[in-house]
Specification:
This protein has about 230 residues and is mainly beta. The chain is built from one helix and twelve strands. Strands 1-2-3-4-5-6-7-8-9-10-11-12 form a twelve-stranded antiparallel barrel.
């Protein structure tokens, strides 16, 4: 476990020193490079970000299904709370995950992610492409996501950005798996514990849950993010 954490820290240091990362908070789901044939899913995510001056809240609602044995397409509606405390639609997303290798086929499992986002009532667009990596080490799993992002439009600065996410997870029980997560963006670096699990039912039906608490390391006196997700696959 110590060797894996050291390798993760070394990889993060190399990655962080080589690129300029995305603006703002990049805490979200750490993706795994797996797709099941004929898979369908509904998903809900929550993100609460608290600093000394702000208390932001965002939610995502999604439906997805596999269009090929190794490819999943998912549609998102994103909602956020505004400065007046009202909650409304803020963006729309289409996401595609492509499983490049079969699980256990090579020394590590690989996948790709492609995402297109349009902000609601704004001329602001975003395209993301990313590499998904996962490696099992005994009873633990190391997952790494690296994203390249291009933003453009009249209501946003045109630029290319990078994001980095990592998760080191201990597969204690299917229903309860503790982890440590690491996130990085140009104005944000955070690390913290996470917990997740999966309950399987008949056939491909299964319920997944995730809960994480990430603390910012970028010098602010208070910078905490609570993330949660529930996903039902059938």
């Amino acid at each position: 476990m110590k060797k894996a954490l050291y390798a993760l820290a070394l990889l993060f240091n190399c990655f962080y020193s080589s690129f300029t990362f995305a603006d703002g908070v990049v805490v979200d789901k750490v993706y795994h490079p797996y797709v099941l044939p004929n898979e369908k899913e509904v998903e809900w995510r929550l993100l609460s970000h608290q600093t000394d001056n702000t208390n932001d809240l965002a939610q995502r609602f999604a439906y997805g299904q596999s269009v090929l044995d190794d490819m999943m397409v998912e549609f998102y509606i994103v909602g956020e709370r505004d400065v007046d405390g009202n909650f409304g639609v803020s963006a729309y997303e289409i996401e595609t995950r492509w499983m490049l290798t079969e699980q256990g086929e090579y020394w590590a499992d690989w996948g790709m992610l492609f995402e297109f986002e349009k902000e609601h009532n704004k001329d602001s667009w975003e395209v993301t492409s990313g590499l998904l990596f996962e490696k099992e080490i005994g009873r633990t799993s190391l997952s790494i996501n690296a994203f390249l992002i291009y933003e453009w439009g009249n209501d946003i600065q045109n630029e290319i950005e990078m994001e980095f996410r990592a998760q080191y997870r201990y597969r204690w029980l299917p229903q309860f798996q503790p982890a440590i997560e690491l996130y990085s963006g140009e104005d944000y670096v955070g690390i913290g514990p996470a917990f997740m699990g999966i309950q399987r039912f008949d056939g491909q039906k299964q319920l997944k849950w995730e809960l994480g608490f990430i603390t910012g390391l970028n010098g602010k006196s208070k910078d905490h993010i609570l993330r949660a997700a529930i996903e039902y696959e059938f």
